[in-house]
Amino acid sequence: MSYVYMNKDETHFDVLGIVGVGLIGGSLGLAAKKRGLVGNVLGIGRSPEKLERAKQLGAIDEYTTDLVEGAQKADCLILCVPVLTIVPLLTQMVPHLKPGCIVTDVGSTKTKIVKEAEGVLAGRNPFVGGHPMAGSEEAGVDAADADLFVGATYVLTESKNTDKAALRKLIEFASALGADAVTMGTHDHDIRVAMISHLPHIIAAALMMLSPNEAQALAAGSFRDTTRVASSPPNLWRDICESNRNAIIYSIVSLRKQMDEIEFALSDDDFDSIEEMFARAKELRDALAEKKGWKES
Amino acid sequence: MSYVYMNKDETHFDVLGIVGVGLIGGSLGLAAKKRGLVGNVLGIGRSPEKLERAKQLGAIDEYTTDLVEGAQKADCLILCVPVLTIVPLLTQMVPHLKPGCIVTDVGSTKTKIVKEAEGVLAGRNPFVGGHPMAGSEEAGVDAADADLFVGATYVLTESKNTDKAALRKLIEFASALGADAVTMGTHDHDIRVAMISHLPHIIAAALMMLSPNEAQALAAGSFRDTTRVASSPPNLWRDICESNRNAIIYSIVSLRKQMDEIEFALSDDDFDSIEEMFARAKELRDALAEKKGWKES
């Protein structure tokens, strides 16, 4: 993983095409326009009402519900749709893309998407996988924010097929939005987000399933916090599980090993090891909270 | 589990002895005095400075650092010390307890404590295990609050040896503090708190241990929430693990079964089952948040 900071004023696309103008797509439009990084933002979607709303909010300048028209006009295309929809939509647009148009996405899993996107593009246009770690794919454009990416980590993936010039241009673009642009391999990305996002979501759901109502009556702060993300949209998480299946299985296996060690220490009355683990975890957690500026601990 | 609500004005102990005047002990003193439930609150502890501070705050009326004196004066004795210290302290006080003095505790595990406390008391005085689900054993008396127990669940345990009159009197006392008094067996209590409190703490620690620094750099809201309680005091959690070992092992085994099912569904590409699980968990979580008045979801 390498961090890249740039101060380049001229990062610029004449027409930035945003497919799916929700929270992330809308915020990208607002953020790019606020910073003068684009000529025109073209919203591409299915619902004229939603696109009209995005235009009212200033997230896009114009819009189309025609994927072909969108493909023909954009100099950079950002796919901001749910993970399983990215490649099917891209497949329809490929034959009509402008030569040189850089294609990227904001999906929260990368290996499968990048591999399939590179496959359908077949070298015709450059594709760089993207994942800005801010907001979610589900909330609407009304929550869009021109400063959503300020200080956020924006992952851009690098594979052996990645076009270096396109990657560089997107690093400059993400940095100009105020994000910390970070490059890594798709597999590294997927294992890491499985560990720090997908596994916590699955655990939250598992904890809810484990505790019958009588137990839940006793729930206090720790249960409230640990299970909060169990309220996330089930269909979104189904798709993430499908899209990142292997890395998530790997994360579950890793957790099992960790929990087996803890169970073994408990069975063995080895409470020194238990306390050491809690102490190490607290040290890691306190350092992370400090680094991230989390205020609650 | 049965809920008991009472409206009895005369719940009363002439001298309420509180051993360990921290957040919980201090709050019990403030709460009982505010509601006129006691004649005098006697603080019992090791540190004259801390006891003097508790007196200044109005949490106690007088204090002693002499366990024998404390035992001789109290009509009800509440042990508000860490779980592994409860029985050793009680053992020293037993020979000097007033006849009829009701003894209770506020430890967050119950089976071991109640069994051992009943053992050292040997029928001489009644013992009722208690666990007010509010605050923690660790914070100091400066955080004490006369309304800490209002609306909180206050568990009182019932075993075959439990003195029914003492249990009834403590139910009335807890209810008069504004708490929802709940009775259950010690084993039921321990399994339930293992599931809704101890297991989430262990998982939070395990998640921290699992994720190397590079992954943590990507951490966002779900990781922040799920790992928050990993910042808890390691020595406190060591003691809870020691005190509730068997129930915690049971909770880990239950989690493993749940996670195995999820892994099996993922391996089998059975994303319908995955979505069903997420949907059921969301339903349970939303209902719980509604019932508890949690505002964040």
Overall description:
- The structure is a homodimer of 297-residue chains.
- Chain A is elongated and about 65 Å long.
- Residues 1-8 of chain A have low confidence and may be disordered.
- In chain A, helix 7 (186-210) packs across helix 11.
- Chain A folds into 2 domains: 2-184, Rossmann fold (3-Layer(aba) Sandwich); 189-292, 6-phosphogluconate dehydrogenase C-terminal fold (Orthogonal Bundle), CATH 1.10.3660.
- Chain A contains 12 helices and 10 strands.
- Chain A starts with a strand and ends in a 5-residue tail after the last helix.
- With 297 residues, the first copy, chain A, is of the alpha/beta class.
- Chain A has a 6-stranded parallel beta sheet with strand order 4-3-2-5-6-7, sandwiched between helices. In chain A, strands 1-10-9-8 form a 4-stranded mixed beta sheet.
- Chain A has helices spanning 23-34, 48-56, 67-73, 86-93, 111-121, 164-176, 186-210, 213-216, 221-227, 234-243, 245-267, 271-292, and strands at residues 2-4, 13-19, 38-44, 62-64, 76-79, 102-105, 127-128, 130-132, 153-157, 180-184.
- The interface between A and B is large, with 87 and 87 residues.
Keywords:
alpha/beta; 12 helices; homodimer; 10 strands; 4-stranded mixed β-sheet
Biggest interface and residues each: A-B, 87 and 87 residues
Largest beta sheet: strand ordering of chain A: 4-3-2-5-6-7
User: What percentage of the residues of chain A does DSSP assign to strands (E)?
Assistant: 5-15%
- Quaternary state, please? homodimer
Q: How big is the Rg of chain A? A: 21 Å
The run of helices and strands of chain A is: EEHEHEHEHEHEEEHEHHHHHH
Low confidence ranges of chain A: 1-8
| pLDDT averaged over residues of chain A | 92
Number of helices of chain A: 12
Structural class of chain A: alpha/beta
Domains of chain A (count): 2
Q: How much helix, percentage-wise, in residues of chain A?
A: 40-55%
From the spread of the alpha carbons, the general shape of chain A counts as elongated
Q: How widely separated are the two ends of chain A?
A: 27 Å
CATH superfamily of the largest domain in chain A: NAD(P)-binding Rossmann-like Domain
Count every beta strand of chain A, where a strand is a DSSP E run of 2 or more residues. Answer: 10
